[in-house]
């Protein structure tokens, strides 16, 4: 660690963010301070505990990484920013991996991103090879997470520097692209995806006008002058909606035998490790797809799973392609390597552009705001040591996934059998507490309940839930960018088309995104 990093480390330990005027030249010092922060006992404990807690929560069917982050965020408020955010990032990685455990054991995905894992993982369990499948899942998840963390470490500073050149038109077009990519990536209806995103934008207009400070659509309610907090909307749409659906189903688990959770042993673990090492192409392809798809705003692990599995089957020999879905290791590798690789990929646009790469990172954005960290262009100048500490914690967290996963494969499945009568009331209480803790406003509890009921309507008619949340998040970015671009260019609409090469590139991406979705819908 250099001498220049020592004062930065002291500030980091105290929870002090860097001044925006800190020059880029201090990047090396910021990196050294970030690494140094990891050697504090409390930070190491946060990584160890956060990863384990994330795995446990992720192994509960329906309890996704998004829900884990939302419910843990209020708990971290008393902690310093570095401890709180590293705890959340570690829990995020653990929950993404943990969702594959019930998918393999009882054919019930712990999260939407683990749906594809069921197809071959559960088939292996029924063949008496549950530990084999869990070992494969743990190995590819941990190593893919390490590779994605390396990609984040290398790419994020350059993307953040590039993002500093974004003006008003570029920010507006980026927000529009973020809304159009969801129906394209999730193979949803173009009309429904855009309508859901527009609804989120509409919610985002409630409150004081950011330019004139005049109240809009507040209906005389003082609480609405600050608008709807998107964390509360997020809790309602993702947590409360899922708990209602779980209660309506009446059962947490699918068809499966509890006895299968303990099948196998050390020999199956060794066999799983060996078989993964003999398939490097399958693993690297899935990891690359997961990192790339994860970096797309709103796409997330569930999209990466389907893309990776489809590509693995497409590139396989005709004989092997026919065996996908019957219990083969290639299917588990394709699903779980891409699943965990999205963690590092999704943090790239979240940290550097302030636009979430998934529902989980949307929740993480709220945690960043609560702890006084402003993501987006210039984040490495404002909070460089903290950001580097978060990135380097991913390496330790994913290494722990390997340790926990390979050593605890025979025991994780028991979490999936927690009775539903305990899960639903407990999670709803935590959701209410979380919504209340955001602004200490009882009104937010009503907003959460309303968003949860609205989420059921969205799901009933196949509207993507991520779209309205993303609309609320990027609404202020889009509005500010549009107003700035409109005024600075003398109200010339062509400025949004020709302001820079970045504007042109974003327009091309928007057209491609809309075109792909339209073509899919037409077919």
Strand content: under 5%
Which strands sit side by side, in order, in the main sheet? 1-2
Low-pLDDT residue spans: 1-26, 253-264
What is the first-to-last residue Cα distance?
57 Å
**What is the tally of helical segments?**
23
Radius of gyration: 22 Å
Whole-number tally of structural domains: 1
Looking at the chains present, what oligomeric state does this protein adopt? single chain
β-strand number: 2
Largest sheet: 2 strands, antiparallel
**Structural shape:** globular
Question: Considering DSSP H and I runs of 4 or more, what fraction of the residues is helical?
Answer: over 70%
Structural class computed from helices and strand pairing = mainly alpha
Topology order in helix (H) and strand (E) letters: HHHHHHHHHHEEHHHHHHHHHHHHH
- Quick check: average pLDDT? 77
Q: What does the model show?
A:
The protein is mostly helical and 523 residues long. It has one domain. It is 71% helix and 1% strand. It contains 23 helices and 2 strands. It has helices at 5-13, 27-37, 41-58, 65-72, 81-98, 100-106, 115-126, 130-163, 168-185, 190-204, 230-249, 266-277, 280-294, 300-315, 318-321, 329-353, 359-370, 379-407, 420-439, 443-460, 466-488, 495-498, 501-522, and strands at 207-208, 215-216. A two-stranded antiparallel sheet has the order 1-2. A hairpin with a 6-residue loop joins β1 and β2. α4 packs parallel to α17 (359-370) and α9 (168-185) runs parallel beside α23. The protein is globular.
């Amino acid at each position: 660690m250099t001498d220049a990093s020592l004062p930065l480390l002291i500030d980091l330990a105290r929870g002090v963010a860097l001044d925006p005027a800190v020059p880029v030249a201090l990047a090396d010092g910021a990196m050294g301070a970030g690494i140094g922060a990891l050697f504090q006992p409390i930070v190491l404990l946060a990584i160890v505990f956060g990863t384990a807690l994330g795995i446990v929560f992720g192994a509960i069917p329906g309890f996704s990484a998004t829900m884990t982050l939302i419910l843990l965020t209020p708990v971290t408020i008393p902690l310093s920013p570095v401890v709180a955010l590293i705890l959340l990032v570690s829990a995020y990685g653990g929950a993404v991996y943990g969702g594959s455990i019930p998918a393999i054991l009882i054919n019930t995905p712990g999260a939407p991103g683990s749906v594809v894992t069921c197809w071959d993982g559960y088939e292996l369990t029924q063949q008496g090879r549950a530990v084999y499948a869990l070992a494969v899942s743990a190995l590819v998840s941990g190593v893919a997470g390490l590779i994605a963390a390396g990609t984040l470490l290398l790419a994020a500073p350059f993307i953040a520097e590039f993002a500093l050149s974004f003006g008003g038109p570029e920010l507006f077009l980026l927000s529009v692209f973020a809304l159009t990519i969801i129906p394209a990536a999730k193979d949803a209806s173009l009309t429904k995806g855009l309508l859901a995103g527009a609804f989120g934008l509409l919610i985002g207009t409630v409150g004081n006008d950011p330019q004139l400070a005049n109240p809009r659509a507040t209906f005389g309610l003082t609480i609405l002058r600050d608008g709807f907090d998107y964390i509360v909307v997020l809790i309602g749409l993702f947590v409360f909606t899922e708990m209602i659906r779980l209660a309506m189903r009446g059962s947490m688990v699918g068809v499966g035998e509890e006895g299968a959770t303990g099948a196998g042993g050390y020999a199956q673990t060794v066999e799983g490790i060996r078989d993964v090492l003999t398939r490097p192409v399958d693993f690297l392809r899935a990891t690359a797809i997961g990192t790339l798809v994860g970096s797309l705003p709103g796409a997330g692990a569930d999209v990466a799973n389907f893309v990776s599995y489809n590509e693995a089957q497409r590139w396989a020999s005709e004989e092997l392609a026919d065996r996908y879905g019957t219990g083969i290791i290639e299917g588990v590798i394709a699903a779980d390597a891409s699943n965990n690789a999205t963690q590092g990929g999704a943090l790239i646009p979240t940290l550097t552009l302030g636009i979430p790469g998934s529902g989980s990172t949307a929740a993480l954005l709220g945690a960043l705001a609560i702890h006084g960290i402003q993501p987006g262009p210039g984040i490495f100048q404002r909070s460089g040591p903290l950001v580097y500490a978060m990135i380097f914690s991913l390496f330790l967290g994913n290494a722990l996934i390997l340790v926990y996963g390979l050593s605890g494969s025979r025991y994780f499945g028991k979490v999936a059998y927690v009775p539903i009568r305990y899960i639903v009331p407990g999670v709803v209480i935590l959701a209410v507490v979380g919504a209340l803790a955001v602004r200490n406003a009882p009104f937010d509890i009503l907003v959460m309940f309303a968003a949860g009921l609205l989420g059921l309507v969205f799901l009933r008619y196949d509207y993507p839930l991520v779209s309205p949340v993303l609309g609320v998040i990027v609404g202020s970015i889009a509005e500010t960018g549009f107003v700035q671009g409109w005024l600075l260019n003398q109200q010339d609409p062509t400025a949004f088309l020709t302001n820079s090469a970045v504007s042109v590139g974003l327009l091309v991406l928007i057209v491609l995104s809309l075109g792909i979705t339209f073509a899919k819908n037409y077919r």
